[in-house]
Q: What sequence folds into this?
């Protein structure tokens, strides 16, 4: 009679373990490690996972597809279940788990005919996590890399066209981040730092929608840095490529307020004249009538017409 409670407890535990895995998911928080091992044939497990997927119970489906791989790793269904697990996690918006499952499929079955789709799921997992430009853009860069890898490896696959479109959107997002940082520096008067950011947009993201503004901002920062020639060039490029935009109108108005005239070319043998000495002419040492630096009482040698202590002319 003493053993009766123990026997009842054992029967209760067996009954709990016999409950299908999906029955536990209604309480939420279903994870791989939470699933008790209940041996079932591969057909039963896969069919149950597929039903959960069709019902929109994506997390349960993903865990059950993982069970197929765990219990029957060498079956032909295990390979398919790996990919279905990645898809189910993606539909559940569990993007980290989806990426991990797809990457595991790629590492185990790199030459499989479904490998392009696995690469596509990896790229989508990163793409869906892209944050606005005020946040860190590490995920955005990872999305661009993953999409680029898909296009590079499988340029003719049915996923490549969508990947190319998304690459354009990702690049526009990265350019937007550069613009956001550049504007931040500009509002604080850090002209050189702002200029470098705007130059990055023009040099690396030429096909994005941010280029017109970047050229106008360059016009502003070059003028602030005191290099109107470069400002003129930026405004000219803006006018040639985006003549009807509001950005060009602003750049044009800026250059009208700060006109720049090219310096007159030097003639043969002509020496450049320093700013503020328009009428000055170079004088050779020892010229008659010019006091040497070491002569003349009180001479400081700062003028070619005599020392400062020579007194006024008589």
A:
């Amino acid at each position: 009679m003493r053993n009766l409670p123990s026997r009842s407890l054992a029967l209760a535990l067996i009954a709990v373990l016999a409950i299908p895995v999906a029955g536990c998911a209604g309480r939420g928080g279903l994870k791989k490690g939470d699933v008790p091992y209940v041996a079932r044939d591969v057909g039963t497990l896969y069919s149950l996972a597929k039903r959960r997927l069709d019902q929109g119970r994506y997390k349960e489906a993903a865990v059950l597809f993982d069970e197929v791989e765990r219990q029957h790793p060498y079956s032909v269904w295990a390979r398919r279940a790996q990919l279905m697990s990645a898809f189910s996690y993606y539909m559940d918006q569990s993007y980290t788990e989806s990426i991990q499952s797809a990457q595991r499929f790629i590492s185990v079955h790199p030459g499989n005919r479904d490998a392009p789709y696995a690469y596509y799921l990896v790229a989508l997992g990163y793409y869906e996590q892209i944050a606005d430009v005020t946040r860190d853009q590490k995920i955005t860069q990872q999305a661009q890399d993953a999409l680029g890898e898909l296009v590079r490896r499988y340029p003719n696959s049915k996923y490549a066209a969508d990947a190319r479109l998304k690459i354009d959107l990702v690049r526009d997002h990265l350019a937007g981040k550069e613009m956001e940082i550049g504007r931040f520096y500009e509002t604080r008067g850090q002209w050189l730092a702002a200029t470098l950011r705007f130059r990055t947009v023009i040099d690396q993201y030429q096909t994005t929608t941010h280029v017109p503004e970047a050229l106008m901002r360059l016009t502003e920062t070059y003028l602030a840095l005191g290099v109107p020639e470069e400002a003129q060039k930026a405004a000219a490029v803006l006018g040639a490529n985006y003549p009807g935009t509001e950005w060009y109108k602003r750049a044009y108005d800026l250059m009208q307020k700060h006109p720049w005239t090219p310096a007159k070319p030097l003639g043969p043998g002509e020496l450049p004249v320093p700013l503020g000495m328009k009428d000055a002419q170079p004088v050779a040492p020892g010229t008659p009538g010019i006091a040497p630096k070491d002569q003349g009482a009180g001479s400081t040698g700062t003028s070619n017409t005599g020392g400062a202590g020579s007194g006024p002319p008589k």
About this structure: Residues 160-187 form the longest helix (28 residues). Residues 27 and 265 are 83 Å apart (CA to CA). The chain is about 60% helix and 0% strand. Residues 1-29, 275-283, 289-314 have pLDDT under 50 and may be disordered.
